[in-house]
C-alpha cells in the first residue's frame, strides 16, 4: 500500500472518530471489528478521495438508520411458503469457500424471475443475505482463517437469460444501487459462466462504460467455467451449475436439493432463515406473533454512471428484441 493511500486511511479514520453518536452503532455493524478494512473499501469505491469516501460512508450510515437496516435480521419473511417461493425465483446462495477462505456466492441471473412476490420482499431478502454475510459468514471465515476476510467471490450463471429479463431491469437497478452505495467493494471477483448469445451481445456494449476497477474484477469464463474455477476452489465448493459442461443453472438440475445452493433446503438458506427467526424471538419474545408483510426500504438513486449503464442495457435488450422479431 502506498504512502498516499495510508495517509488517506489515516485521514478518513480521523473523520470517522467525530461521527455523530446516533451513527456509531450502525458503523460498528458495518465494520464488525475491522474498521480499517471498511475504510479501505469506501476509499476504493471513491478512487481514494477522502472527502468523497467520507460523504459516501455517512450517507450509508444514514440510509441504514432511516431504514432500520440494523434490525432487518429480526424480520423474517413469513409464511415459509412465501419465503420458499422467493428462494425459487431469486436464485442466490453460498456454495462453499475458495482456497483462500473467501465465501463463494452463486447467482442464477438467467433463471431468476422475481415474479412470486412484491419488489419489497425481494429487496428485503437481498439485504438480509448481505447482512447475514457481513455479520455471520465473514466474521466466521475471519476467525477460521486467523485474518480479516471481508470480501467474497461471486459466480454469475447466465443460463436461460432471455429478452424477457428486460422486465426485471427496474428491480435489478434498485438492488445493484443498494449494493454499490451501501456495500461497496464486497466482491473480490465476478466469474460469469454459461454465457448465451444475448449476454455476449450486451457485454460488448456495457463493458466500455464500466470503470477500469470494475472491469478488472469481471472474468467471463468458457462454458460452465469448471476448469478455471477449480484453480481457486475445491470441487465441493463449485456451484451445482458449474460441475459439468452443459449442466445448466439449476432449480431443477442437481442431485436433489441439498447440493442446490439456491434451494431453501440447502444448509446456507436453512441456517439464514433459522437465524432470522431466532433473532425475531429474542427481540419480541417467544409468545409474540411474527408480523406478516415486507420491509419497505428506500431505494437510493443510482449515480450517473449507473443510470447510463442501465439505460444502455435497456436499449440493447430492446434492439435485440426487435432483431428477434424481424
From TrEMBL:
Top-level taxon: Eukaryota
InterPro entries: CRAL-TRIO_dom (IPR001251), CRAL-TRIO_dom_sf (IPR036865), CRAL/TRIO_N_dom (IPR011074), CRAL/TRIO_N_dom_sf (IPR036273)
PROSITE patterns xref list: CRAL_TRIO
Domain CRAL-TRIO: 79-239
PANTHER family: CRAL-TRIO DOMAIN-CONTAINING PROTEIN (PTHR46226), PHOSPHATIDYLINOSITOL_PHOSPHATIDYLCHOLINE TRANSFER PROTEIN SFH2 (PTHR46226:SF5)
Protein name, UniProt field: SEC14 cytosolic factor
Organism: Camelina sativa (False flax)
Source organism phylogeny: Eukaryota, Viridiplantae, Streptophyta, Embryophyta, Tracheophyta
Amino acid at each position: 500500500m502506498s504512502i498516499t493511500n495510508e495517509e488517506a486511511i489515516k485521514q478518513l479514520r480521523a473523520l470517522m472518530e467525530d461521527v455523530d453518536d446516533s451513527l456509531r452503532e450502525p458503523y460498528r455493524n458495518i465494520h464488525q471489528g475491522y474498521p480499517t478494512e471498511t475504510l479501505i473499501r469506501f476509499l476504493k469505491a471513491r478512487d481514494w478521495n477522502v472527502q468523497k469516501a467520507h460523504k459516501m460512508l455517512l450517507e450509508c450510515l444514514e440510509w441504514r438508520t432511516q431504514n432500520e437496516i440494523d434490525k432487518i435480521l429480526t424480520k423474517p419473511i413469513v409464511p415459509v411458503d412465501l419465503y420458499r417461493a422467493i428462494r425459487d425465483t431469486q436464485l442466490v446462495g453460498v456454495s462453499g469457500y475458495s482456497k483462500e477462505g473467501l465465501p463463494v456466492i452463486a447467482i442464477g441471473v438467467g433463471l431468476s424471475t422475481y415474479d412470486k412476490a412484491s419488489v419489497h420482499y425481494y429487496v428485503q431478502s437481498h439485504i438480509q443475505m448481505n447482512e447475514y454475510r457481513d455479520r455471520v459468514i465473514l466474521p466466521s471465515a475471519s476467525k477460521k482463517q486467523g485474518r480479516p476476510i471481508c470480501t467474497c467471490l461471486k459466480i454469475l450463471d447466465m443460463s436461460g437469460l432471455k429478452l424477457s429479463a428486460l422486465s426485471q431491469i427496474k428491480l435489478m437497478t434498485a438492488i445493484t444501487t443498494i449494493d454499490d452505495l451501501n456495500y461497496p467493494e464486497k466482491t473480490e471477483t465476478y466469474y460469469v459462466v454459461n454465457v448465451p448469445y444475448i449476454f455476449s451481445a450486451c457485454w460488448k456494449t456495457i463493458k466500455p462504460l464500466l470503470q477500469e476497477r470494475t472491469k478488472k474484477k469481471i472474468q467471463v469464463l468458457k462454458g460452465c467455467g469448471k476448469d478455471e474455477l477449480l484453480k481457486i476452489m475445491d470441487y465441493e465448493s463449485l456451484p451445482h451449475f458449474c460441475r459439468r459442461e452443459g449442466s445448466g443453472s439449476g432449480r431443477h438440475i442437481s442431485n436433489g436439493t441439498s447440493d442446490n445452493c439456491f434451494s431453501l433446503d440447502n444448509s446456507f438458506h436453512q441456517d439464514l432463515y433459522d437465524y432470522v427467526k431466532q433473532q425475531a424471538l429474542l427481540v419480541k419474545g417467544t409468545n409474540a406473533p411474527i408480523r406478516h408483510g415486507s420491509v419497505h426500504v428506500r431505494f437510493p438513486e443510482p449515480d450517473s454512471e449507473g443510470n447510463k449503464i442501465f439505460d444502455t442495457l435497456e436499449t440493447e435488450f430492446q434492439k435485440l428484441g426487435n432483431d428477434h422479431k424481424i
